[in-house]
Design a protein that fits this description.
214 residues; alpha/beta
Length: 214
Amino acid sequence: MLVSPSLLAADFANLHKEIEMINRSEADMLHLDVMDGVFVPNISFGFPVIKAVSKICRKPLDVHLMIVEPEKWVTRLRDLGVETMNVHQEACVHLDRTIHAIREAGMKAAVTLNPSTPVAMLEDVIAELDMVLLMSVNPGFGGQKFIDNALAKVGRLRRMIAESGSRALIEVDGGVNAKTGAMLAGAGADILVAGSYVFASHDPEEAIHSLKIL
């Protein structure tokens, strides 16, 4: 299993220390949640934090944009060394155009679906994607309870990917821990995003390992 710890749950007063832990760990990438207070009812962090993290993090940056008009920031994120730019289907009027702009900039293109958005919304673009992120909580805040319907949704997306010949990986974010992670692995997920489970643990590296071996 690939693991992408979510920086949103980190101790921002000790960010350098938290990133050093990620560098030592078995994490495959680092998940950065950017929130604008418009698309979701919360504000997190923006480009200054991404820039600072990019200088010290040795893991690929998986940037999840929970913002309106994410297409405006393709070049800016590319210049910060972001590997994967992840936009919400619900926030993109011209999703196909945005996906192509991300890929033309040299980044991996990912699209996120909210819990109430069916996977069928990606039917016409799935072949162009490197990753699909399924939210297993409603986006905007960490520490929420896992939505069980995400398991069936992973299965539906896995079938769509197989039928289309897409190479997209399935990432899941929200309420992920050892128990829900095991269920998601069984359903066909490829990448688990975990915030509180990792950063609130007394041993974050062991928490990452417990997901890695699923």
